[in-house]
Amino acid sequence: MRELDRKLDSILQKIDKVNAGPAKTIGGVASDGGGYIIVNGRLIRIPPWNPELYGAISIFQSAAVIKDDTMREKIQESALSVAEKALSQIE
After folding, report:
1. Residues contacting 88, CB < 8 A, separation 6+
2. Burial of 7 (0-12, 13-18, 19+ CB in 10 A)
3. Cβ atoms 24, 40 nearer than 8 A
4. Are 24 and 46 in contact (CB under 8 A)?
5. Cβ–Cβ under 8 Å, residues 53 and 83
6. Span between the terminal Cα atoms of the chain, in Å
7. CA 89, CA 91: separation in Å to the nearest integer?
8. pTM of the full predicted structure?
9. E strands within the chain?
10. From CA 44, how far away is CA 16, in angstroms rounded?
11. Which of 1, 10, 19, 2 is nearest to 57 (CA)?
12. Residue-wise pLDDT tens digits, 16-64
């Protein structure tokens, strides 16, 4: 597995942890707003929906069809950088 793919997997695992259920929602979490969820008695802050995070993941995955290795990797590296920054605002 390529290093870039490992980084994407790590980001997706972190997203899964944030989205883990079952959870009780507090605030606007259910409608793309910010708020909190309670999972196993733990209060977790959820910021408003971040389209930048999911857009970056989409770009990473879409770039897989680019045949030029150098160009594909540059695009995927940039997308991961954006995703990691957006994810850091959630954690």
Report:
1. none
2. middle
3. no
4. no
5. yes
6. 26
7. 6
8. 0.60
9. 24-27, 35-39, 42-46
10. 13
11. 10
12. 665 555 556 666 666 666 777 776 677 777 767 777 887 888 898 899 8
